[in-house]
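Quick one: sequence plus flavin-adenine dinucleotide SMILES, need structure tokens.
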Amino acid sequence: MKIIVLMKEVPDTYGERTLNLETGLAERGATEAVLDEIGERALEAALSSAEKIDGSEVIVLSMGPATAAATLRRALAMGAAKLVHISDEKLSGADLGLTADVLAAAIRRIGFDLVITGNLSTDGSGGVLPAMLAEILGVPHASTLNSVEISAGRLEGTREANGGVMTVATELPALISITDRFPAARFPNFKGIMAAKKKPVEMLTAAELGVDSDALDNPRSIMISVSEKPPRSAGTKIVDEGDGGKKLAEFLVQNRLA
Amino acid sequence: MTTFPDDSILVLVEATPSGEPAKSAAGLLGAASGIGTPVALIVAHPGRGPEAAAACGALGAEHVLVAETEAATAWLAVPAADALASAADLVRPDAILISNSADGRDVAGRFAARTRSAVAVDAVGVARDEEGIVAHHSVYGGAYNVHSAPTFGAPVITVREGAVDARAEAVEPAVEMLDVTPSGAAAASIELFEEQSVESSRPELRGAAKVVAGGRGLSSEEQFALVDQLADVLGAAVGASRAAVDAGYVPNSHQVGQTGVSVSPQLYVALGISGAIQHRAGMQTAKTIVAINKDPDAPIFDIADFGVVGDLFQVVPQLIESLSARKE
Ligand SMILES: Cc1cc2nc3c(=O)[nH]c(=O)nc-3n(C[C@H](O)[C@H](O)[C@H](O)COP(=O)(O)OP(=O)(O)OC[C@H]3O[C@@H](n4cnc5c(N)ncnc54)[C@H](O)[C@@H]3O)c2cc1C
Ligand SMILES: Nc1ncnc2c1ncn2[C@@H]1O[C@H](COP(=O)(O)O)[C@@H](O)[C@H]1O
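Reply:
Sure thing.
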């Protein structure tokens, strides 16, 4: 079974993330870049399923700047067999439509039984990309799964939606997106880190995938303005001396909040 | 055949398991009415259409398209995306508004990819200028305001649940049954659906005016009941940090933050929550923030309007007592 995991490099959410007020793009370099945690969980799901199914292969696919290569290597150290990295200046600031076209073209080229993505990335927080990919690829899409059982040719998972919990199923090939209810990822060990150095990394551009990033015949979503909101500041802080609850009650009542 | 107004805004109304418009419908139709004529599409079980259509009218939909089908409870996303494609063909709207829920995002993604439409996600508001429809976003946990627009064509916009306060006036809608052309796209099947018991009379987290949230500091599922008690005294919804969800104190749906629900209430009370940046991302646009934490250096205090450094198991019972005493 061939499993493609979609991962991306994102600004570390533990740092202050900044947007460039002129371009509206994330300031790379303003904070440390890391693998998106949800992508790591997706890779963990792929690796642990692959361990149970003979002849499985896990390939990581990412679209992002060339500088992401070092971060992405961690996925190889964790156990992925190969990395496909689409890196192209022309794709900087790509909207969802263009991103979906490029990733779908790469997924087709690699070939797959299963594609695993995160449900929401921590920078884009779009959450529509997985469904867009499924539509373009013409495969079923089981989204926002909290758990999954994968066997050769079929999968079944649970998800929460519309005020309930549902069990969903599909034959393969298919695409799934997972939530952060999935187990956290394994840490790369020394052996993995050494092995990663010998694993293949394929670099691709949009043109090599047959996608014209300059084409104007499809509508694109563009940012027309970006502004910064003033940061919040701290207010009153008291230390409880046995009457903290009473003082807090007074604050709430005075501010008509209770 | 009905003709639809030039400024039509097509709203996909999600239906609850019992067939009524989902909570998100009011905000979506309210947002639509601010930028054009709201036209609702509801995908209903056979026979349930008329009732659902009337409910959409009460929320301000001037036209309602009803697609009656059993497929929507049997297959994920595709039946609704097919209905939306047929509706958009008929209405030729200026924009399509969909709830930014798990299901809404799936339909938005499939529809946008199929029709090559521009997509704007997680909008907290919409507007119209000379050039067309503009979506307003609050990104990086509310640190930035971003406006986006399509280069041309009708954008597909997913709207954050509970973010739009505007409500449209009730109208008597023009109702029409919609013929849906199936796309034949492959879909995952829904094998089983279990409705989660609706929790007491407590307000829903999304869009709540007050939220009391608990974190790892509550220490156990039993002790998390203290959060519920304070919430009930304040008439608030219950939220939680990811650590509290991971530890099993509360179900998933209560998680506030970057990967959970984003809230902007009048009052947010954080109990035993350190205030990690990913948690703050989902609540720091609250009007007033109150925090109780025994660690004076907890980052939650950096954004709290009123902070109490202390043991929540001492402070909260006293707070509940004081508030209850005032009520009597
Ligand atoms: C990609 C990513 C996404 C994430 N998304 C989210 C998200 O959506 N939401 C979210 O919440 N987190 C999220 N997190 C996790 C986040 O980083 C923190 O780990 C989490 O918010 C911590 O939860 P907490 O504050 O309850 O726990 P802790 O950080 O352990 O804090 C517990 C606090 O309780 C206090 N305390 C303990 N006992 C008492 C007592 N008796 N009285 C008073 N105070 C007490 C302690 O002083 C401490 O400050 C995400 C992380 C990543 C990497
Ligand atoms: N540039 C990208 N490269 C690879 N995968 C991506 C990229 N953008 C989004 N994804 C995948 O799509 C998921 C949802 O992302 P988003 O739509 O940005 O919230 C992520 O968790 C990834 O698995």
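Chain A has six helices and 13 strands. Chain A has one domain: 2-217.
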